[in-house]
Amino acid sequence: MERVLIVGNGYAGLQAARTLAREKALSVTMVSAEDCPAYVPHLLPELAAGRMEAGDLFLPRGGEAGATEIAFRPGARVKKLFARKRAALLSNDETIAFDKALVATGASPWIPENLEPLLAQCGNVVALKRLSDAIALRNSLDGGARDIVIIGAGRVGMLLAEALKDRGAAVSIVEIGPRILATMLQQDVAERLHPVLEKRRHLRLHTGTRIARFGIDGGKVREVHLADGAALPCDVVVIAAGVAPNTGFMEETLPAAGGLAVDDRMETAAPGIYAAGDVVFFETVTGKKEPGQLVVNARTQGEVAARNIAGHNVACPPMFTGNVVKLDPVIAARIGDIDGTDHADFTVQRDFVRATRNGSTVTGLQMIGDPESLRGLVPAVLKRFRPEDIADLFRGRSDLGLAPLLLSRGYAWA
Ligand SMILES: Cc1cc2nc3c(=O)[nH]c(=O)nc-3n(C[C@H](O)[C@H](O)[C@H](O)COP(=O)(O)OP(=O)(O)OC[C@H]3O[C@@H](n4cnc5c(N)ncnc54)[C@H](O)[C@@H]3O)c2cc1C
Q1: 104 lines ligand 1 (CB under 6 A)
Q2: Cross-strand partners of 238
């Protein structure tokens, strides 16, 4: 019987396991570094803020009744994967041999070099990516922590600040770049969020400034001193400076700069080794190479990889990358590639959309507005609309067959 190893128990690994369970009899083992069921990462800020419990984030395993049983090994981290030898060495020094493997290890927080010692040595520094990080932050807040300094004004930093708004916390976000959400919104689009953020009395934004030094006492960061002279009181530091794909355990023969490169069947350069989700570097519908970034990508790629592992020949459908951040009552979102040189803007009531175009087709969208009215625009990038089509769609008089999606609650990002 063919032996399959799934490394990682996030959306990509879980979808692969569910798919393989329905296939012909295989011997499938799934290992996860974390000692818990799969969970919803985008709810970690809610867990940290005490608005949800850990159990609310867990995903159902599914697939137990299929032809193939999945042997799940939580708390088993792969420390080395030998692609040619077809073996994985676990953190407990056990070796698992396999015929085919799926690498679905997601990404880890990217820690700037100057902050590495801080994370290692100070008991009140976390990087919000895993369930255990959220629980650690929650415990600090429950223990009386009030002054929270978040390093990075990207998606995770902004989501956490938002989740903490009713927690009695005083949140400072320090961002070295000139603006918030820099990888998803252009400057003038991001500025449209300022009226919303100004209403957040718990939040202070420090953009365009660096950290000069940390005031450390008793193994904890007590103050964060900025280059512009500000001194921020601090009970907890949260590092939210971006992520990097989890590839450090891969045999060196498999290049992994920016993520594992895959073909459209989700197979890496090593035959029989597949990859899916945030760990991959794939070609999007606009021709750009990017990491997975979205739940929908992780699930689709996990399913495609699993079907190919099971012996089918399936290609991944066209996909885009993006980000979404809810800053009540609006969402800010990016879909696709927003680096184009030309754009068209549309505003209807309080909804704003910027369509980036490349020639006559739309390659990306930036959106600020009502979550329900904006979701339906997702297909615009996949179907390579013209800006005029978006104008029609947005004004609700479209005959493109997508108008119902504008009001649909069923169409989900995640
Ligand atoms: C705060 C936040 C908000 C987000 N918001 C959204 C959103 O609104 N919409 C959206 O679509 N996406 C969102 N995302 C991104 C989304 O969560 C990811 O794209 C998705 O979870 C990727 O799934 P994955 O399976 O590739 O990786 P992950 O979910 O990261 O899972 C990877 C798994 O691999 C395990 N692992 C890692 N290394 C090893 C190893 N060496 N050995 C064994 N196991 C290992 C990990 O423990 C983990 O279980 C958000 C993410 C965060 C953190």
Answers
A1: yes
A2: 126, 150
Could you check whether 113-239 and 329-407 share the same CATH topology?
Answer: no
Q: Is 244 in the pocket of ligand 1 (CB under 6 A)?
A: no
Domain extents in the chain: 3-108+243-309, 113-239, 329-407
For helices 295-309 and 11-21, give the axis angle rounded to 10 degrees: 40
Question: Does ligand 1 come within 6 angstroms of the Cβ of 263?
Answer: no
Tokens encoding 11: 């959306």
Q: Which atom of ligand 1 is nearest to the CA of 249?
A: 41
- How far apart CA 376 and CA 379 sit, in angstroms, is 7
Q: Please tell us whether the domain made up of 3-108+243-309 is placed in CATH 3.50.50.60.
A: yes
Q: Domain 113-239 is in which class?
A: alpha beta
Considering the domain 329-407, what is its CATH architecture? 2-Layer Sandwich (3.30)
CA gap 161, 387 in Å, rounded: 34
The per-residue pLDDT for range 121-176, each reduced to its tens digit, is: 999 999 999 999 999 999 999 999 999 999 999 999 999 999 999 999 999 999 99
Query: Cα(22)–Cα(278) distance, rounded to whole angstroms?
Result: 24
Determine the Cα–Cα distance for residues 127 and 324; give it in Å rounded to an integer: 20
Which tokens in the block code for residue 235?
Answer: 């009970």
